[in-house]
Amino acid sequence: MKILASRRLGAPTLAAATLFLSGCCSCSAFVPPSSSSLSSGADALRRSFGGRYELSASTVGGGDFSSPDSSSSSSSSSSSSSSSSSSDAGMNSEDGADDYFPPPLTSVQRATRAVEFYKRVLPVLAAYKAKEVELDLRGRVPLGLAAISPEEELAAWTELDEWGSTRIAETIEDMKGYYVKTGQVVSTRADLFPEAYTEKLTRLQDGIEWMPFELVERVVRRELLDGAELSELFATFDEEPLGSASIAQVHKATLLDGRVVAVKLQRPNVEPKLLGDIANLKRISRALAESLPVDYYAVFCELGDALERELDFLAEAQAMRKIDLAISHDNDGRPADRPVAVPLPAGELVSKRVLVMDFVEGVPLNRLKERMRERGIEPGSPEARIAGRRILDSLASAFGRMIFGAGFIHGDPHPGNIFIGEGGKVSLIDCGQFKALPRPQRVELAKLVLAVDGYQRASASSSDDDDAATNAAKLEVANLVRSFGVRLEEGREDDDDLACSVALFLFGDSDRTLPGGYSTNELSDDSPIKRVASFPQELVLLGRATVLLKGIAKKLDVPFSLGEKWGDGCRLTVGAA
After folding, report:
1. pTM score
2. Cα–Cα distance for residue pair 436/439, rounded to 1 Å
């Protein structure tokens, strides 16, 4: 049956997918928090203040805050007066930094955290495997069992999706760390995951529990003001955050010169957990290298490096300026209008853990449908399609310039990091993840994208798979994939269909059929990605950007071709080489 076939992934494949998605996820977003965060923020406040922040057993398994004493007040409105003396003491102590930003997790703490995660997730994977076996048996009508109807099968999967998605969402929200990033990317992949999962995990893009304002104030004062009052730098500073995400929290403020800014500060205790999660994933992927379909160790090494940069706001401030310059020039270096806006740092108001930047007006892309409905525009309507096309054109143009022009790439374009303002103006926020590509690689990538577009045009104009022009185009793509450093699994090194399918998966149209019978569904056993032995680390974040752009197109229900959009820019890059 169609439904059963779509679920027949098997526990090993699902486990591998979980590992992959744990490494290919999103970052913090400037999004208003949910109303439920109010109470959870107060709870965090009650249990956090009155003593040093430290890593306890509960921190290893769950929330961002713990302390040996929970005797202090929970009223954030009294932050300026009631917490001043304690914050001054903390900031003036010689080892005050360790109160907020503890050392890395020990190997025991990392193992405890990994065991807790898999203890809660593996039963979900097992339930899907059990349901697959059960429905398969009923489909064969053995032992006198009644055959199952398509309606009954759909109801069974829907019930399991509801239970499984609830358990996964609760696990991620409890454990936080890099698992939040897992949930964020799953929520963007409506083309791969059941609706129950994408809907429940979407709230991870809308923010998680707030840091209490007393902590926000203490960190900002220490990082930017050497312990002085906020009023020395800010005319106003909103206590309620704009958004609270996996790595950081963002507040709106006004500088003394009248500029409206966003203040981003890193969560205490988050760095050890994030790096510990990555260390676990690297260790697991290396141990299971022979069993996994892709070289996930290379993936996690690249993403681990990116994460360390993301935790350094000084690096992010520099990346914001570089990305802004990249999108303000064509691929041949000539100045051009910016297709998207990028917030810039406010002068030198930045430290490793606090960043003051331009304030961005707008609504995050993951809330655009809701906002459009409020204005009487229904999804799928001509107006919605026009808006979706403008958004994708702006994003594709920006990423085309970053990748093939300057070679400096925003590595985290998930919907929570894309803001839509009045008139459809697009802003790209959160530059913590980025990648630099040297010119030779940019030229090779440009050639590959042009070759992919050429293959798609040749195959579309011919009904014969053995057409000479189609085969020649396929061979050109396959040879470029190999020359870029992609290594196919043993026994398939000379499989031109496979090599071409890998490129089409990354840069081709989502609705195009892949040669050789390979599947565009990356979780399918026939996915070309599962036949890759290793690939250059430079492709990890690049592939993530292209896949997420195509995922956005899917959510907006807009036909979209990266090859067509990037064609002219790629020709400029190749011509200027």
Report:
1. 0.69
2. 10
